[in-house]
Structures are given as structure tokens and as C-alpha cells.
Amino acid sequence: MFNSSTIQHLGCLQKFCASMDTKSNPKFVFNILLLCLFLKCHISLAADTISADQSLSGDQTIVSAGGVFELGFFKPGNSSKYYIGIWYSKKLVSMRTIVWVANRKTPVSDTFSSVLRISDGNLVLFSESETLVWSTNLVSATTSGSAQAVLLDSGNLVLRADGSNANTSEPLWQSFDHPAHTWLPGGRLGFNTVTNRTQIMTSWKSSEDPAPGLFSLEIDPNGSNAYLILWNRSRQYWTSGPWDESSRTFSFVPEMRLNYIYNYTYVTNKNESYFTYSLYNPETISRFLMHSSGQIQQLTWLENSGQWNLFWNQPRKQCEVYDLCGAFGSCNEVSAVACNCLTGFEPKSQNEWDLQAYSSGCSRITNLQYCGTAVSTSAKYRAPDGFQEIHNMSLPQNKQSVVVGNISECGPICLNNCSCTAYAYESSTRCSILTGDLLDLQQLATGDRSGTTLYIRLGSALPLLESGNANKRSLVIALVSGTAGLLTITFGYFLWKKTRGKERERRRKNGETKTLEKERKHRKRYDEILSNVADGGGMNDTELPLFSLQSVLAATNNFSEANKVGEGGFGPVYKGILPGNQEVAIKRLSKKSGQGHQEFMNELKLIAKLQHTNLVRLLGCCIEEEELILIYEFMPNRSLDKFLFDPSEKFELDWGKRFRIIEGIAQGILYIHKYSRLKIIHRDLKASNVLLDGAMNPKISDFGMAKIFEINQTEANTNRVVGTYGYMSPEYARYGHFSEKLDVFSFGVLLLEIVSGKKNAAFHRFEHSLTLAGWAWELWREGRGMEVIDASVRETCQPDEALKCIQVGFLCVQEDPADRPTMSSVILMLANEATSLPPSKEPAFSTHRNSVAVSSSPQTTPIISNNAVTISLPEGR
């Protein structure tokens, strides 16, 4: 064990190694280099304790007894500063994940001359200059005698009296009482009336700065049994709602209902009130985070994918976080980037914005130039400041309502007020004047009628017309400059006109004019289609390559039968070869198609905005003459149903490939439900709409029947039921009611098909069961679950994994949507081997007793996708 003085000497020796003259004695140099390399190696104290005669410095760490957590110095991201922190052991979590930081406000610059040790009964951190950087701050009366710090497998760093038992003795101090941005299972978040201590979780400033950020979570000090998220420890923008003991949830956090993973407990008595949680399966790795985005997040580690899975977060909408984008920043819920500076502004700290930490806000590019002088509405006077219109904005709260004679007075009123930074119209007789920094602005979605037009005050180069000589000189300069500019523009225009005439004549001779007009016509039609598709029209932000019909004909050999690889209700699919030998799948809308036109436009708009490894990628489109064509990446292994239900090919799908396909499909669905720019319900998930690339990775396709939801929307109704019999959930098939749980139901059917190798549609021929789920359920109840597994993989599969998949499938196809898990829960159940699953009830449609024909509902008009053919089938030949 190295003591602090030894560590300091070693640090000096390392610096000497780095600055040595390589021309010294070779043997001496070699020995010194070996010593330097040794010193640079990571040194673990191999113990979980720092005792009174020990210290921690440099690359040394301590590790909890079970090897779960590690404590030492760390450097976040590209930062040059070092902190003392606790993180998960690399053998459990391959991604470095910090859960607690000691010196959040005061980092050190040199770890080898900085020391963490026991001093006067406290755990303290000294910098290279022997300055006290951080301490547990216990008074001497409490810490009489020696002490030691122990890192527990719970992630709790405990300071205890030397010789006492860390598991049974009351600690002198513990990190769980002083959480940073992470709340681990077993920790408490509450208020102790005896010690007057409140546990508060505070976000990092950014992913590379552990300093306390603007957002914090704490219990309501007014005793409402609720938790609050505060901005700057002062402004509340979210509450959990009160605790309901009967349902064991907070009223505004319905996700807590899925308590088969987390055991939540709320305790309140005369001494304290606190909230805590544990895991039913101790092997599950999970943490609760106050994120720098201002949202609280429940995360679970998925070792198979090497990433943290978001189980739930609050508030659900990013833009509900108060002042997320800082002064003069605008939040946009559907944009790929959450925050943008208003026109005329730029980020105050581009580095912070690059790290998605926006709280520093934006600053003016050009300062305001006018203030204080009276402004007439006549044309004689003109202020150098102007206004920029920004449409469909939500207004901040620091606004003043002003009565005006007419709307035209709003601008001059703002210009006469030195503090005014923007204004908006309330009515023909009132306007809102906004002063100071504009906070909490939001760009609302197209179609949201609650927004208003905001007029932002910006600096301008226009000269102010005043009386006197200065005015005359300014006027002469302006007139001369204006005249010169006008002559330049006029001369340029005639030159351009002459050149353009020659070019037009050349194109006419070459027959190009007609082609250009044709292209403009196609481009106009393309833009018209995109502005009037399934999301209700509005601004088009879809930018797809537009292919010519000639290039498509060349790629498919004039749509030859030899290139045809599939056909559905919309029309045929062809394999094509683009220049550069790029293979593509070309989906052509049939002129005779009864469906397809609306589906084509829907898919064009939706899938162009989706980017995920488990979604098929749209490369472009062709809209020319009467043709509507979509061009996708080519999937050489065709669609999943070709392997799954063909006896001659199902042997290609061993159990490992099947399980990876199940996980990939689940990840793709989770993305469109939760993480994509648009919240989307697919509505037609089935084996034929899952394509397989060359490595047999699944990619969800065919978004023609998909539906866009608002970010905070959870359900909807329709009179146009679309999809495929057998994959529709009961509430959708009967009443046209749909939500994310419709896709969950379809996924459950698909999962059972993948495990069993049987097609759900085939079961209508059997009297004893209407569906695949019903057949599987009967075997499951009789203890014959292994018989559900496809015979081709039954002997080689992992039985526990396959049986778990069957049970997850049953959970997904429950009658009541509330009984079905979310896709986030599905992924968690599939990925964690030891996760205990809740008991499932009888699946929907499993017997004649709980089934109702779709046609019996007069409220809906079904538009059914034919399950007998493959709708999106780019097949390699």
C-alpha cells in the first residue's frame, strides 16, 4: 500500500520520466523507462476500504467486496479536470458510468499529487498544493477516534468508526445521504425532520461537467407526499403527484405500475418522509438519473447491446422542462435538435451546445442600436432596430398586456421601451410586450393552433433620420450608396438577361427546354404531395433524392419480370441496379391498386424521417407522369416469412438468429414509439413486413399504414381500420381504438410465430383454437411449453430463453391493453436472463368465447392487408 508521501514522490518521478533526455546512459534510461511504465499502469488497492494509515491517489482505486462498484479519480469526456467518483465495475457495465461525485464544484488538475485520505476522522481530498478540496465535514466530537471509508456493493460509500461493522453499525457519514445526479436501489430520497437533512438529486451541467446543473429533484417541502423537479432550485415545472398507497404509485407517474421489476416504497412518519426502491431481481442493473436535460430517467443496463435502456422518463415531453434552451433559445419537440437559437442570435457557448447542454442560452449577433428617442409612426422617422417574425410560438410568462388603438402601434411601443425585446398581438386592441431575456420559448408543431406570431427585436444597419447636419451628411451618404447600388443591380440584371437569353436559345436548339419544364412539373408535384400527406400537411421538411423515371427504368430493365421480386396490394417490387453497382429495391404503385396511393404518400413522409438500424432505409423516390415509386436499400435475404414458414428454408433460422431477430424487431418498434423525431404507430407489423439483410438482421418495413401521434398523445380512434387479420388487437379490430399497445399486440403474435415457426393465419381452420396464441396457451397450461417451440430448433435452443420468449408473447397479446407491457419493458424482459416475469392471463382471441368478428362492429371500416402475399419483398436473385 502506498501512503500519501510515497504517491507524491511517484508523481514527481513520472514527471521526470516524461522530461528525460534520451541521450543519457542507455541502461539507466531503460531502467527508468521500465519504472515509468510500471507507475503508469492502473493500480488497484484490491480492497474496499481506505483506512487511517492509507490513502488513494493517481490511478489507484478501491473496489467493493463483490466487485460491483469502483471508486477513484476519473476525467469526464474531453475535460482536463479530475474528480473523485464512484462507477460501476467494468466487468458488470462495459460503459464507464459515474453514479456519484465527491468534489463536483472543485476539480483537481493532477491526480498523482492529489490525495484522498482519512484526516481527523473525516474522509478528505487534498489538491496538489495541499489545499482542502472536499471533506465529509463531520465535527470533531462526532469523529473522535479513528475512522475508515468502505465502498459497499450497493454503491454506498460509508464512513464508519474503525473496527465497526459496515453492514450493521450506524455510519458516521454515507454517500447515499448526499446523492449527486444518480439514485441507486436502496438509496433514499426524502427529508429527515430530526437532522433537518434533505436528499436532493442535482443534474450535471453537461456530459463532461459534473458541476451541479440547473435541474434538481426533491421531496415537496410542503408535505404533499409528492416529488418536484425544480429549475435553479426555485421554479417548479414538474410534480409526481401524491403517493397512492393502494396502487403503490405516484398519481402522475403511471409507468410505476409496471412494478414487476422495481419494488417502490414510500415511508412517512414523524421523523422522516422518504421514497426508496429495490429490484425484485438483484442481478438487474438499474439506476435513477436526474439528467442534464431536465428529465428524470429510470435506466436499466442491457449487456447484450452494451447500452442503457430507458425504462421511463418524466416529464415525457422534452419541451416541458423549464428554460431548457436558455435565453433566446427555442425548444422544438419534433426537431432532431431540441434547442435552436432564434434568428439573429447564436449560442453563448458553442461547446456546451455541442454537448446538448443548452442552459447558457443565446446572445445577439448584432446589438440593439435604438433606445429612448420617441418614435413616430410616420415614414419620416425610422428606428435602426427592426423585427423578425417567428410563427407558431408559445409565449414566455414575462409579458405585459398593453391597450392600443390599433395593431400598428405595437411595434413603436416596443421600440420606445429600452427593455422590450419582442412583442406579439393579443387582439386588435391589445398587444403583449416582452422585456428582458426571453426564456422558455417553444416552437409549436405545425397545426397546433395555440401558437402565436412573435416579433423579435433585432439590431439593424438602417440609419436613423434626424434633424441637423449629421442628418444631411447621413442622407447624402445613403443617397450616393443607394444610387450606386441601384446602377450595379440594373447593369447586372441586363447582363443576366442577355446571358439567360443565349442559354435559353441553346437549350431550345438542343431540345432541353421541354425537359427542364418537365422536371419542374415533377418537382412541383413532389412538393405538393409531401405537403398534403397523412400528417395533415404543413411545412415540408422531408428532403429525399428525386430519381428520374428514366434512371428507374434503366435500373430495372424496363420493369422486367426477371427483376420482379414480390407483389402486394399496392403493386410490384423490383430489384434494381443503380449507377455505381448499388442494389436497391424499387416499389412501384400499381395504377389498378385499390389501396396504395394514400399509403405511398404516408410512407414517403414517415420513413424519410426515420433512421434506425432495425428500420428499412428509404433512399429516394420517383414521381413522374403517372408513376409513384419508392426506392429502398436492398435486402438480399428477403422477408422473414419466407424463412419462417417455408419448410425447406426454416432450417436457416437457428435459435440464435431467431432470438436476435426478436430483439432487433423490438428495438425498432421502441424507436418509432419513443425515440424517433415522430411518435409513430406502425399498425401492420407482421412477418412479411420484416426484411432481413445479408447478416440476417431484421429491418421493419412498410409504413404505408402507419399513424403519427403527437409526442404526448397516448391513444386515438379511427373509422378506417387498417392492418392484417390475426395481428390486430381486440380494441382496434372491434372499435378502431389504437395506441402503442396495438403494435405491442402485433409484436406478441409475431414473437410467437418466430418461436413456433407456425403462421397465425393458419389457425382459423382448427375448431379448438382461433389463434396461434390460443394453441400455445393450451400447451403452456398443460406444462407442455417446449412443444410450442419449432421442431427444427427445439433440440438446439436454449430452453429457458425460448420459454421466456413464449411468456413475453403471452403478455403482449392480452385482451386488456393495460395488461400489455410497453416495448421498453419487453426489451428489458428479453435482455435480462434472470428477470422474473409477471404471470400472464389467457390471451385474447384464444377461444370462441372471447372473440368477436371484426365485421360485427358497425363503427369501423376495415382496410385489410392481405397476409397471403408479401407486401414489401425485395428478394435477391
Characterize the structure shown.
- Residues 1-46 form the signal peptide.
- It catalyses: L-seryl-[protein] + ATP = O-phospho-L-seryl-[protein] + ADP + H(+); L-threonyl-[protein] + ATP = O-phospho-L-threonyl-[protein] + ADP + H(+).
- It is a single-pass type I membrane protein.
- The chain is of the alpha+beta class and 877 residues long.
- The chain contains 15 helices and 49 strands.
- The chain has five domains: 1-177, Agglutinin, subunit A (Orthogonal Prism); 179-316, Orthogonal Prism (Agglutinin, subunit A); 328-364, no CATH class; 529-633, Phosphorylase Kinase, domain 1; 640-864, Transferase(Phosphotransferase) domain 1 (Transferase(Phosphotransferase), domain 1).
- The protein is 23% helix and 27% strand.
- An eight-stranded mixed β-sheet has the order 28-27-35-31-36-33-34-32, with helices on one face. Strands 37-38-39-41-40 form a five-stranded antiparallel β-sheet, sandwiched between helices.
- A hairpin with a 2-residue loop joins strand 40 (618-624) and strand 41.
- Helix 1 (4-19) packs across helix 2 (26-40), helix 10 (655-675) packs antiparallel against helix 12 and helix 12 packs antiparallel against helix 14.
- The model is unreliable at 1-24, 33-46, 373-383, 461-477, 530-542, 848-864 and 866-877 (pLDDT under 50).
Q: Compute the gyration radius: what is it?
A: 33 Å
Distance between the termini: 67 Å
Number of domains: 5
CATH architecture of the largest domain: Orthogonal Bundle
Bin the strand percentage.
25-35%
Output the CATH topology of the largest domain: Transferase(Phosphotransferase), domain 1
Structural class category: alpha+beta
Q: Describe the main β-sheet briefly.
A: 8 strands, mixed
User: Which geometry do the CA atoms define?
Assistant: globular
CATH class of the largest domain: Mainly Alpha
Residues in helix, %? 10-25%
Mean pLDDT: 79
**What is the CATH homologous superfamily assignment of the largest domain?**
Transferase(Phosphotransferase) domain 1
Which stretches are low in confidence, meaning pLDDT under 50 for 5 or more residues running?
Answer: 1-24, 33-46, 373-383, 461-477, 530-542, 848-864, 866-877
Q: What is the number of helical segments per DSSP (H or I, 4+ residues)?
A: 15
What spatial order of strands do you see in the largest sheet? Answer: 28-27-35-31-36-33-34-32
Number of strands: 49
- Quaternary structure type: single chain
